Amino acid sequence: MIEATVRVYGPLNDFLPPHRRQASWTRTVDGHPSVKDLIESLGVPHPEIDLVLANGASVTFDYVIQNGDRIAVFPRFAIFDIGTLTRVRPRPLEKIRFVADVHLGKLARHLRLAGLDTAYRDDADDAALAETADREKRILLTRDQGLLKRRTVAHGYFIRETHPHRQLVEVLRRFSPLDLQPFSRCLRCNDVLREVPKSAIDAALLPRTRQHYDRFEMCSGCGRVYWKGSHWTRLKHALAAAREEADRGAI
Ligand SMILES: [Zn+2]
Questions:
Q1: How many angstroms separate the alpha carbon of residue 16 from the centre of ligand 1?
Q2: How far is the CA of 195 from the centre of ligand 1 (A)?
């Protein structure tokens, strides 16, 4: 049995039981676990972590815990300019793209509305989600801490909020700055929209739509047609409100 003193910082405290938060405590462990195993046994998934210090020195997740170690664990964005210091941060993604778990269907729609490439299937199991994240270099968004602990998940984020609008604000804030291109993606299938001449879809339009609208876009994946009706105006306002809220709270 060996002992290590552990302290986690900032939003990583969300994963700890209330009496463990914002404090150092001594943990007794069997054998010599890796620092990754030690931290994840506390409930903190590795993709949420940006820096691990053992006795003041930056270590990798493979670091083997020694008796008497002092372990400090920092989240993303808690500290700045640590690019040369951290030994646990995965290679940054060239493009921010997401895959959302089965419980985040509404959030996925909101993200697509904002123009963010977001894979989502309501029947995707944990293995499929982890594989999509890994293969397509997507950030896995989930409310399942166990899913984030999978070894293959390099980029992931645990959604704290439960209401879809609050979740959207949370993601916009967490991954700021994001290149948003509202109304550029299909809400149903995530593919990109292309402008389509009215004449090409005229026969499929309801009389009132044909009468009031002249500009249309079509999903290049599923063929769904979009136009800027009252629904569009409502969504536009909801998105603008979320962006404003996210900017207000940005770190
Ligand atoms: Zn579509």
A1: 40
A2: 13
